[in-house]
Amino acid sequence: MFAQLINLILGSLCDFLSFAFLARFVMQWAQVSFRNPIGRFVIAVTDWAVRPARKLVPGLFGLDLASFLLAWLVQAVYISLVIGITGIYGGVGAAAMGVALVVALIETLRLGIYLAMGVVIVMALLSWINPYAPMAPLFNQLSAPLLRPVQRMIPPIGGLDLSPLFVLLVLQALLIVLGHLRGSMLPFYAS
Fold it and tell me: The pTM is what?
């Protein structure tokens, strides 16, 4: 029970930190202004690690690779600890580290999908409830790369945009695939 509690707390902290690094990566990729409450929060949570990492890992094509790498590394450290504690794959060894790196990438992608789902849901809710809310432009700009291609294929029906539902369905399918991949590599993570 104590080990499960530690795993829950440590996993939640690592997921939160990785989520913040991914939010910074996505906000910079979408060229969103960080001059809003969410942007300032993301900068405050991640700046201590991203600034030094940028000296070692330069950006590429406008992508903040340092932020993505940090999100992946946080997950890799956490998965390595879990593998070391459980003793699967013989504890901490070369095979275990390889598995940890691959599973960490899967977990980082999973968190990225959750981030995308959250952005689409908040954007859809804001568009229905209060399209002129101060945070609406931020969520519109973040969700546009996901929704725009679908909106070209599926026009609004009766004035109602169904593209968020389709995007959420596709993202949920990707989560299922990633869950099966993760479960096949680490059986105790089967979802």
Answer: 0.89
